[in-house]
């Protein structure tokens, strides 16, 4: 589930774009492969099937798309962790913080593209205070 930042035009457009067939999922691959700065709108459009006009009607900028991705990825990770904790609790497993981290570690580190996208998100957030707030 995408969790948008309420009240901003960019987030409303980003949220609307996310629900249009998961184009941001395909755009995430472009960001993971080459990074946000090197990803051209043309490359994103080619991967997502958007025309340039469709891209800009859904996202004001590449940064707005990246913000939608950040919100989506963070929401998915929170949901995955909550589900995993519920399973561990149901099994009666040790929920001491150290043991819990060991049980949840694979949620954060999965496929190569996920690792690359997460690295790109973290790097971007360190450079852009707006993204760091997300």
From TrEMBL:
Keywords: DNA-binding. Gene3D superfamilies: Tetracycline Repressor, domain 2. Residues 40-59 bind DNA. PROSITE patterns: HTH_TETR_2. It holds the Pfam family TetR_N. This is Helix-turn-helix transcriptional regulator. Residues 17-77 form the HTH tetR-type domain. One of its GO terms (molecular function) is DNA binding. The keyword Manganese does not apply.
